[in-house]
Amino acid sequence: MNGLTVRWSLAEAPEGVDEALASYVAETSHARFTGMTGLRFKTWRSVPGEWFEGCYVFASDEARAEFEEAFRETAAESPGSQIIGSSPILIEPCEIVAVAEGWDGFEATPRA
């Protein structure tokens, strides 16, 4: 599977950025990616005060390459960059080796 990781540093981010990012994901970003053609799933991860990350899994090499190219062109102006106050420190394609769904199943939710 075709993955892409986009990570921002929160080391120099303004106070309250963690809540601002969580609200942005819940109110805007989650809906943008739900049902997106070519995307299998996206997760948003954070270590408060350290980093914020989007992890994407695409259905094909082409879908990943198309998204990555478009994102790289606008990364500095992306909503995440605007909220955090800086561009991503990492935009990295990767291979997702496997995905397992646990007994309790997968829950797609805009806010955990």
List keywords for this structure.
112 residues, 3 helices, Alpha-Beta Plaits, alpha+beta, four-stranded antiparallel sheet
Written description of the protein model:
The structure is a single chain. A hairpin with a 3-residue loop joins strand 2 and strand 3 (51-58). This protein has one domain (2-95): Alpha-Beta Plaits (2-Layer Sandwich), CATH 3.30.70.100. It contains three helices and four strands, in the order βαββααβ. It is of the alpha+beta class and 112 residues long.
Which topology does CATH recognise?
Answer: Alpha-Beta Plaits
Structural class: alpha+beta
Shape estimate:
globular
Which H/E pattern describes the elements?
Answer: EHEEHHE
Poorly predicted ranges: none
Total strands: 4
Give Rg in angstroms. 14 Å
Strand content: 25-35%
**What is the CATH top level name?**
Alpha Beta
Distance between the termini: 25 Å
Number of domains: 1
Please report the number of helical segments. Answer: 3
Q: How much helix is in the residues?
A: 25-40%
Strand order of the largest sheet: 2-3-1-4
| Second CATH tier, the architecture | 2-Layer Sandwich
Largest sheet: 4 strands, antiparallel
The average pLDDT value, as a whole number, equals 95
